[in-house]
Design brief:
binds S-adenosylmethionine; two-stranded antiparallel sheet; seven-stranded mixed beta sheet; globular; Rossmann fold; alpha/beta; 10 helices
């Protein structure tokens, strides 16, 4: 029996060869035929430190994307850097489901996605000196004063990031929140050599992540930087430093809350 052509080419069911879009911007990579799909879900982060080599079946530089949302930036990096292995994490299961489906359908065996908080990941599951790059795009500002303690970038978190990175390893930070950026600029240089990066990413000028695309469309400034690990700082120095630095109690700009609501609805 011939299927009606409508059910074979329904626009809601992605077909092999399709390029998916979000806000009119292509999501990196094309959908492959099912026999070429990968398995990118790390359904349960095992207890203890992750063994990268057994996770990916090879020894390669490790890239971590913390708060990866729907995975756009992780997918793009995995395609651009096939010789690196990637771990994208987020606390929200629903966004990790999207990210995982996209990674699977693109056959990206150099990615795993997991539901876990960034702090917990670094403190409990990442060996010291084992990560080449860490990316954090638009960490949530948490506007409600009762939630401020949940802000990701803290002196303690920077200590953990410093510990996780290889010598000379890089931390990429990006936000559209002026208060968060001012805070990052004040504390990140204690652990890293921070260079601010101006202008859009050359490879993704309209936005590397979903949030960046939305922010740019609303005319918000994007602040970003590349922070190179200061290798002269020991773990003990970093811990001492962390105790002397202020927590991220900057005032969240309530006008930006509206954008978060738009983003959640989109
Ligand atoms: C504003 S969104 C940005 C998502 C994505 N990076 C982007 O730029 O489109 C912030 C993301 O961080 C996640 N998140 C919040 N706190 C986190 C934490 N402690 N660890 C990992 N992810 C977290 C949220 O669930 C959300 O997906």
């Amino acid at each position: 029996m011939n299927l009606p052509s409508k059910s074979r080419s329904s626009p809601s069911i992605p077909q092999a060869g399709d390029l998916e879009h979000e806000f009119g911007e292509p999501i990196p990579g094309r959908i492959l035929p099912p026999e070429q799909w990968a398995k990118t879900a790390l359904k349960k982060v095992p207890c203890g430190v992750l063994d990268w080599e057994s996770l990916f079946g090879r020894r390669s530089p490790i890239v971590i994307d913390i708060g990866c949302g729907n995975g756009r930036s992780t997918l793009g990096s995995a395609i651009m850097k096939p010789d690196c292995d990637h771990l994208g994490v987020d606390i929200l299961p629903v966004v990790i489901r999207y990210a995982t489906r996209r990674g699977n359908q693109r056959g990206l065996s150099n990615i795993r996605f997991a539901v876990i908080g960034g702090r917990e990941l670094l403190a409990e599951h990442v060996a010291a000196g084992s990560v080449a790059e860490m990316h954090i795009y638009h960490p949530q500002p948490f506007y409600d004063p009762a939630q401020i303690y949940r802000r990701l970038i803290t002196p303690e978190f920077l200590t953990l990031a410093h510990r996780a990175l290889v010598p000379g390893g890089k931390l990429f930070l990006q936000t559209d929140h002026p208060g968060y950026w001012a805070y990052m600029r004040s504390v990140v240089p204690c652990f890293f050599d921070l260079s601010e990066l101006n202008g859009p990413w050359p490879d993704t000028p309209r936005g590397r992540t979903r949030r960046e695309i939305i922010a740019r469309r609303h005319g918000l400034p994007i602040f970003r930087g590349e922070a190179i690990r200061r290798d002269e700082i020991s773990i003990d120095d970093a811990l001492r430093l962390a105790n002397s630095l202020p927590p991220p109690t900057f005032n969240a700009d309530r006008r930006l809350r509206k954008l978060d609501e738009i983003e959640a609805r989109s």
